[in-house]
Amino acid sequence: MDTFLPKKDGYVVAVVGATGAVGQAMLEILEERKFPIAKMIPVASSRSAGSLIEFNGESYEVEDLESFDPVGVDIALFSAGGGTSKEHAPRFAEAGCYVVDNSSAWRMDEDIALVVPEVNPNDLEMAYRNRIIANPNCSTIQMVVALKPLHDVAVVKRVNVSTYQAVSGGGGKAIEELAKQTRALLNGESLEVNVFPARIAFNVIPHIDVFLENGYTKEEQKMMDETRKIMGADIAVTATTVRVPVFYGHSEAVNVTFESEMTADHARQILADAEGVCVVDDPSSEDYPLASEAAGTDPVWVGRIREDASCANSLHLWVVADNVRKGAALNAVQIAELLIEQST
Ligand code: A2P
């Protein structure tokens, strides 16, 4: 099955999970970037089948994934949960469609490419064997975009990251839960906890996804495993992932140790020229990246760059990005753009 996507003027694109937070962002980004689309097909569950989705000024009826026939679809962007991807992505791939999957279902499968276009575009080659490409975890994507240009110069040896993750990473229901709980608390009303393991309004929860036997959470293990799959297995990675009451924009405190010297000034210069990165780092004017400013934007924002006073060849970085855009939808669309660039 190792054929490239045939070159066309316009492609048939399905967005699976089109009614969700990431699916909606995928549609917006396809529009913004003028992705060459011959036909757009929004797909979701039977709950929203038949409802209408706007795309490029036209209305499209949402298809039910269970009964949808993928024959004729060139590219499908999936963001409808891991179980849905496990069940349906192979069916799309067998029908000849390239699937870019935003769930964690295929990321660590050794035959599946896990791609961040600024970091490891050549890994996309693997996709020509099985037609499924995995989009990494949102927290992994923004961190590796910031680390790769530095790794190319001084070789990353170890990374210790703590995340401050927005609720939108948990989808539409999670966004609603923060809004509802905040309203309830401010109005002195009782509140419900449904999506997160504890109240998220006015709180900080060091628990994303399930706990594993080694004491890490699955979100932490994903960051550790995915970073090594994308950047190299020689890198030691440890993570603490935390949910904070922010709607959009993940922030990360990244402590990184290099094989050789890397000064803060040198890192600032390298990152200023790096693809997909914007440096905002001026303590004299109290300028640093903020989730509120990164939300709705495409780059990975890096600031608070400083040498670690406790450890040689080490830096601290503050890395912020819109988790729904670069952390999910934008990265998926960029992978689709790579596929069509390589089409023959
Ligand atoms: P639906 O709106 O029909 O439930 P979010 O991450 O914001 O919660 O969105 C999840 C997305 O995944 C929605 O578009 C949702 O569709 C879709 N989805 C969830 N489960 C399934 C399923 N079993 N089959 C198809 N789409 C699904």
Features:
344 residues; binds adenosine-2'-5'-diphosphate
Write a brief structural summary:
By secondary structure, the protein is an alpha/beta fold.
Whole-Å distance between the termini? 15 Å
By DSSP (H or I, 4+ residues per run), the number of helices equals 9
- Strand tally is 15
| Cofactors, ions and other ligands in the entry | adenosine-2'-5'-diphosphate
Strand content: 15-25%
Unreliable segments (pLDDT under 50, ≥5 consecutive)? none
Shape: globular
Q: Looking across the biggest beta sheet, what order are the strands in? A: 5-2-1-6-7-9-8
Helix content: 25-40%
Q: What's the overall average pLDDT, rounded?
A: 97
Question: What order do the helices and strands follow?
Answer: EHEEEEEHEEHEHEHHEEHEHEEH
* Structural class based on helices, strands and sheet pairing: alpha/beta
Rounded Rg: 20 Å
Describe this entry's structure for a reader.
The protein has 344 residues and is an alpha/beta fold. 31% of the residues lie in helices and 23% in strands. The chain is built from nine helices and 15 strands. The chain has helices spanning 21-32, 82-94, 127-130, 138-154, 172-186, 218-231, 264-272, 291-294, 325-341, and strands at 11-16, 37-44, 52-55, 58-61, 63-64, 75-78, 98-101, 113-114, 132-134, 156-164, 236-240, 250-258, 277-279, 300-307, 314-321. The protein has a seven-stranded parallel β-sheet, sandwiched between helices. Strand 8, helix 3 (127-130) and strand 9 (132-134) form a beta-alpha-beta unit. Helix 1 (21-32) packs across helix 9 (325-341) and helix 4 (138-154) runs parallel beside helix 6 (218-231). 46% of the residues are buried. Adenosine-2'-5'-diphosphate is lined by residues 17-23, 44-45, 47-48, 65, 80-81, 84, 171-173.
